[in-house]
UniProtKB/TrEMBL annotation:
It comes from Fusobacterium simiae. Keywords: Coiled coil, Membrane, Transmembrane, Transmembrane helix. It comes from the Bacteria. The chain crosses the membrane at residues 23-44. The keyword rRNA-binding does not apply. Residues 70-119 form a coiled coil. This is YtxH domain-containing protein. Pfam families: YtxH.
Amino acid sequence: MGLLDYIEARRLERERAIRNEKALNAVKIIASVGVGFALGVLFAPKSGKKTREDIANAAKEGLDFVSENVNNAIEVIKNKSSKLKEATTEKIGNISEKIEDIKEKSKNAKEKSDEEEKSSK
């Protein structure tokens, strides 16, 4: 079992190294985006006040867009859940009816069996 343990340990070590490399790459990308944004703001041809206004307006528009889409998603979810509730209630009603039918048939079959048993004695 020593060789299998060694192979498993090497595999786990490689997987850990790959995860660490992916995390490091993600951090590099985020840092690059941040540096690019900072340099863009610093060397922008507009004044600082105008740039801040543009950033504030873009943030407000983004927030409006997100809140509108969230509200739309909430409405869709409400509609889907009500339809699902109606369908589930209908299915439960159908199942209840079938159970009652089966109970009735079972009761009738038992009564018929009891009558046949009495008549054969």
